[in-house]
Write a structure and sequence with these properties.
Elements lengths: L7 H23 L26 H18 L2 E6 L5 H10 L2 H5 L7 H10 L27 H9 L5 E8 L6 H6 L13 E8 L9 H4 L2 H10 L2 E7 L3 H29 L7 E7 L9 E2 L2 E2 L21 H9 L15 H4 L43 E3 H15 L6 E4 L18 E2 L11 E2 L4 E2 L5 H13 L3 E7 L7 H14 L11 E6 L17 H5 L7 E4 L4 H13 L4 E5 L4 E3 L4 H10 L1 E3 L13 E6 L1 H17 L5 E6 L17 H8 L4 E6 L3 H8 L7 E4 L10 H7 L4 H11 L4 H25 L4 H4 L5 H13 L20
Parallel strand pairs: 1-2, 2-3, 3-5, 4-5, 9-12, 9-13, 10-11, 13-14, 14-16, 15-16, 19-20, 19-21, 21-22
Antiparallel strand pairs: 6-7, 8-17, 18-20
């Protein structure tokens, strides 16, 4: 640690500023009125419901005032991530003291009336939450759920070489899986092209009612743990304010100069050797400066300080003097003038303009967002001479498009691909023709695509880190995508929820600028797990996603590579959404030309006229499909029906945009009832092949007129087996689908009965064949859509249609909105 860097005057002012922040924090938790205590405190001055978290708050106030000093001293571009974000009063209070809050919310003025509003709004109907939230200027991190702060900090630092992200980590938070893993992110930080992350581990000893692990292990063990994770720890420990101010000041000077030395050496000598970045361990009492004893029980320095340390209500009138005494201990009369404004000599301690942490533009990333340079996705089109004539691996085709996106945006350094060691597995390897995996740890000769600088971050096997890095990257004004195995994206269910909630609130705040969408590419999906089996089969992320606000979520299941290209081009250009795209990596038939794919994806849903034969009248049955594998099986079922029941009028409807199925009153992409009925009819049976759990489609369509919907999808059946047998086990195969049609249409008579018997025999034959040969039957493996036969049958069916039948237009649906 550097020698004492604070003179007595500076120490006095910083301690006073800290007292002011603590005073505001207590006021926010408790007070409804009388913000400056100009008259004796009464019960009517206290909120009817007192809620909040005091325990972490004074420690964070202490950190904030010291970060303000080094920002001014070193002219730092720095913002603050509050890991223990439930300590909302700290960040709100400090953003108010620096003046940012009043600029964003002019009704909360810098005077006594503004203090009253500041206090009242906290955890109050019509006000703000008790956690750090989107409503808090300077924040990119929701404080409700713990564990993601350090991941967000690294995401913010990537490609921001001049930025320092101060990340306060609660010792309870440090026990979570995501945070415990996030310490390893320093192996991916490039000291030349990335910024710096300054973790501050705040050890105050307790969670809600238990001690914390890192606070109870020996100093030596804690230091070795931190060093073992590749950090150089600096310890600031104690409870006496003056001594702690001097310790913290000297430590921060040492740490910032270490960061600058590391970066200067790396940048002047092109030295990418992994440095041992500094970090701070701050050990201070929980509820520091708060009530020491209440009703005979120790509070300060114990778990009792975690939330509200002092109950003040009608049942505890004797606590009113205790609250008043506590607040007066901060001597507000020395900190604020008679009008309630922070005195000038203290206000001057805060940085100015955008150097204020609450006003840092990186914490409102839309201010910095620049459009991606986008290649023409049509240049990567798969040539489709006729439907099903060729096969391709959809994600492999997408990989070549993403390669071009990566290359076009290398200079801007604003696009990255994230994933848990699955970029190659998901067939996106073309990106490694133009970039590498960023990796700053040791390399050996047999490694591939590792370098200190790269636009792919997939070298840590942690979905939590990939999600957290990407969120931090997006929230600070950049673009990216997360590719993952479909089953294991469920690991970040909760992180997705928090981000979706963040976006929902941001859309209600005019000062929050739009950011790039969070894009998921889910591959290695449920229908492509013949070598992995049951553990890798879970399409339930879709069910989870659609529960969020319709303004936020979008779900796409393109049927082939050209549709996938069109969809992903749209997703990368979009703002303020969560886009989930499910695509396969195994070779499958390709259905649409690029021109047709663009139209189809723009509309999101439509009749595939080339696969239908009902153009001359009402269909007898509607065959719906959503997803690459269900589309294949539905079309194979249609070909069987065409061959054996040529008079049957069939309409094929394909869905790319899943939310089209929902009502337009529920989702902005949803179809009106009129348009839905024009596609699916009001009363015909609908046999629908779906990628995921069948009941999801029923949930989306439960208000529709046509109740004759029969969905086939994944129903928790599967093992290590052939691709087709996976579909058989879940009744999504062509044979079961045709049997379903026969069962729903009793008018098919004898021909239907014979067809059903033939297909039941086929299912037995299939099982025997795969058990003997280990692969699907040749008629399944080699099946192709015969467009010429389909055309003939379609014309024959149309010719036989009654002249008076209602004609269905070929229009697939309404054009999708720009969103």
């Amino acid at each position: 640690m550097k020698a004492d860097t604070l003179d007595s005057d500076s120490l006095h002012k910083m301690n006073a500023y800290w007292r002011a922040a603590n005073y505001l924090s207590v006021g926010q938790i408790y007070l409804y009125d009388n913000p400056l205590l100009k008259r004796p405190l009464r019960l009517s001055d206290v909120k009817p419901l007192v809620v909040g978290h005091w325990g972490t708050t004074p420690g964070q106030n202490f950190i904030y005032v010291h970060l303000n000093r080094i920002i001014k001293q070193y002219d730092l571009d720095m913002f603050y991530i509050a890991g223990p974000g439930h300590g909302g009063p700290a960040i709100v209070g400090n953003v108010y003291l620096e003046g940012t809050w009043s600029e964003v919310y002019p009704n909360v003025t810098q005077d006594e009336a503004g203090l009253k509003e500041l206090f009242k709004q906290f955890s109050f109907p019509g006000g703000i939450s008790s956690h750090v939230a989107p409503t808090t200027p300077g924040s990119i991190h929701e404080g409700g759920e713990l564990g993601y702060s350090l991941s967000h900090a690294f995401g913010a630092a990537f490609d921001n070489p001049d930025l320092v992200v101060a990340c306060v980590i609660g010792d309870g938070e440090a026990e979570t899986g995501p945070l415990a893993t996030a310490w390893q992110s320093n192996k991916l930080l490039n000291p030349i092209s990335d910024g710096a992350v300054l973790p501050i581990l705040h050890l105050n000893g307790y969670k809600i009612s238990n001690p914390t692990v890192l606070a109870r292990i020996e100093h030596e063990e804690l230091e070795k743990f931190i060093r073992g994770c590749g950090w150089t720890p600096h310890f600031v420990e104690g409870d006496e304010p003056e001594a702690m101010h001097r310790l913290m000041s000297g430590t921060l000077d040492t740490v910032i100069e270490d960061i600058r030395r590391i970066q200067s050496n790396a940048r002047s000598h092109s030295d990418t050797t992994r440095p041992r970045w500094p970090m701070i361990v701050l050990r201070s009492p929980k509820g520091w400066t708060g009530p020491k004893v209440v009703d005979g029980l120790k509070v300060e320095g114990t778990f009792r300080a975690h939330q509200v340390p002092l109950l003040v209500d009608a049942a505890h009138p004797d606590h009113i003097p205790l609250l008043e005494s506590w607040m007066k201990s901060y001597k507000a009369e020395e900190l604020f003038d008679q009008n309630g404004r922070l005195i000038p000599e203290l206000a001057d301690l805060a940085p100015k303009g955008e150097r204020r942490m609450g006003a840092n533009p990186h914490a409102n990333g839309g201010l910095l967002l620049r459009d991606l340079q986008m290649p023409d996705f049509c240049a990567h089109a798969v040539h489709v001479p006729s439907p099903g004539a060729v096969e391709a691996c959809d994600t492999q085709v997408l990989g070549r498009f993403l390669r071009d996106v990566t290359q076009l945006n290398q200079a801007a350094r604003n696009f990255r691909i994230f994933g848990p060691d699955e970029t190659l597995s998901n067939l996106l390897g073309a990106v490694f023709e133009v970039t590498n995996r960023q990796w700053d740890a040791r390399e050996v000769k047999s490694d591939e695509f590792l370098a200190p600088e790269g636009q792919v971050l997939d070298s840590m096997l942690s979905e939590h880190q990939c999600e957290g890095w990407l969120e931090g990257y997006l929230l600070t004004g950049r673009h990216g995508l997360f590719n993952s195995y479909e089953a294991f994206i469920r690991i970040v269910d909760s992180m997705f929820s928090q981000h979706a909630k963040w976006l929902k609130v941001c859309m209600e705040l005019p000062w929050r600028r739009q950011i790039s969408s969070l894009n998921y590419l889910l591959a290695s999906h449920v229908w492509q797990q013949d070598h992995n089996g049951f553990t890798h089969q879970d399409p339930g992320f879709l069910d989870h996603v659609i529960n969020k606000k319709a303004d936020i979520v979008r779900v796409y299941l393109p049927a082939d590579a050209n549709c996938l290209l069109s969809v992903f081009d749209h997703c990368l250009r979009s703002r303020n959404y969560v886009n989930v795209v499910v695509a396969g990596k195994h070779a499958l038939p390709q259905w649409l030309t690029m021109d047709a794919a663009v139209v189809h994806c723009t509309e999101g849903i439509g009749i595939w006229q080339w696969a239908s034969n009902d153009q001359g009248g009402e269909p007898d049955v509607v065959m719906g499909c959503c997803g690459d594998t269900p589309t294949l099986e539905i079309l194979a079922a249609v070909s069987i029906l065409r061959e054996h029941l040529p008079k049957l009028r069939i309409r094929v409807v394909n869905v790319v945009d899943l939310m089209k199925l929902q009502s337009s009153t529920e989702h902005p992409h949803g179809l009106t009832d009129q348009d839905y009925d024009s596609l699916f009819t009001k009363d015909k049976h609908i046999i629908f092949g779906f990628h995921g759990y069948p009941w999801l489609v029923h949930r989306l369509t439960y208000r529709r007129t046509n109740r004759n919907l029969h969905v086939r999808g994944y129903k928790e059946e599967g093992t290590i087996t052939t691709p087709f047998d996976m579909r058989v086990q879940n009744d999504l195969d062509r044979f079961h689908l045709v049997i379903d049609v026969v069962d729903r249409l009793p008018g098919l008579g004898t021909r239907g009965a014979y067809l059903k018997q033939m297909l039941q025999d086929k299912l037995i034959e299939h099982k025997k064949y795969i058990n003997k040969h280990g692969q699907d039957m040749p008629e399944v493996r080699n099946w192709k859509w015969n467009q010429s036969d389909a055309d003939k049958e379609g014309k024959a069916g149309a010719a036989k249609t009654d002249a008076g039948s209602k004609r269905v237009t070929g229009k697939p649906g309404l054009a999708r909105k720009a969103s």
